[in-house]
Amino acid sequence: MTRLLLLLVVCTIAGRVGADDPLVPLAEGFLHDGKLADGETASLLALDTKPADDEVRFGLGVIQFVRAVENLGKAMYEYGAVSEKTTQRFLRLPVPRNENPSAISYRALGRVLDAFVADLSRAEFTLAGIKDDNVKLRLRLSEITFDFAGTGMDRTTLLDLLVKLNGGRFDFQKVNDEFRIHFDRGDVAWLRAYCHLLSAMVEGYRAIDEEPGFARRVKGIFPNVEASTKETEDDWWQGLNVVDAPRLRRMRLHLVAVCELNRETWMHIRNETDDDYEWLPHPGQTEQLGLPLTGERVDFWLNAMEQLEGLLKGEILISSYLVIGFHQIAGFKDANDMKGKGLNIRRLLDDPPADMFNFERVKAKGVDGKYLEEDNEKPSLDVNAVFMALQLFSGPFAFAHAARLN
Predict the structure, then answer these.
(1) Is residue 201 part of a domain?
(2) Which of 68, 152, 273, 342 is 20 to 30 A from 158 in CA distance terms?
(3) Cα 56 from chain centre
(4) 198 and 245 within one domain
(5) What is the pLDDT of residues 98-113, one digit of tens each?
(6) What is the pLDDT of residues 365-380, one digit of tens each?
(7) Is the pTM of this model over 0.70?
(8) 295 and 361 co-located in one domain
(9) 259 falls within a domain
């Protein structure tokens, strides 16, 4: 009886009792209404009743991801971020204008970004629990709603957000105005990879002390910036110090997960036999977004992921040729001493020097030998594979391609 009452409560909250379309998932109504906290609660209660329901679990993961974005947007609104004045990915959310913003500081921004990572981790953990290879989550994305101002009045739809970020409308709006997508098992891995990628970016930023000169660098983005107690020289980049080395290791591990999950994503997608409003289609499926991905392009991408994964795991080195070339271009002394020595990125990120970005020091002393290995012991990075993948992000829809492939 208790379980029956609990299920009735969940269905009532979700508005599914007597619904005309039994295929509408629990999550969609909450996503459209912008009631994300209620949606998370309802989904958790539904999973308590039916723990094996991976459609509900998928919907919960999406709600948690959307909440992560909304919470970040609320913080950007609080501090009056002007998104069109920045190229910083985390600060580009097109939030409403705040006429009375709070003063931001370097430390305050750090807290905002750490909270974002915590939110992403919750979503990724939920999605990682999905086991059903046939899971399907049918969503109409155009009306997913964000309340960045936190007032319930000035809302932003996902479609508006994407159009602003991309700098123009998408062709799919002419034929699929609801932005209907039926997410499947490959998309679970894709969204998990996206959570890891965004987390890696934050961890990398937070590992470095960028407080000197912070106020000057963000004054065009935030209207009210607290003055920093740390001064900086014009060559502030060389003065950056690693102040939280474990974050660089966490960044590396997040990026390894991105590579592994990209492989999982395309393994599932390439095994699909249906053609059902795909988010990431293989060449035999109908393209919904007007951004076709040929089999060749996917191969380019996966080859680059393989190279990056090997580099991050220390199984592939940056060759002595590239290291020496960099030294010679920069005018470093004794570059020829690097012959036959490849750079192990895993060692560098797991145990970085505090003055990692002080190129004057590197000029004088070279790269610490503990980060180097004999070139002939491991394969070297295939630079061509990386360049071929980067070509996918050229053209007028570069942002859209980048967002889809994370």
Answers:
(1) yes
(2) 273
(3) 23
(4) yes
(5) 999 999 999 999 999 9
(6) 777 889 989 888 899 9
(7) yes
(8) no
(9) yes
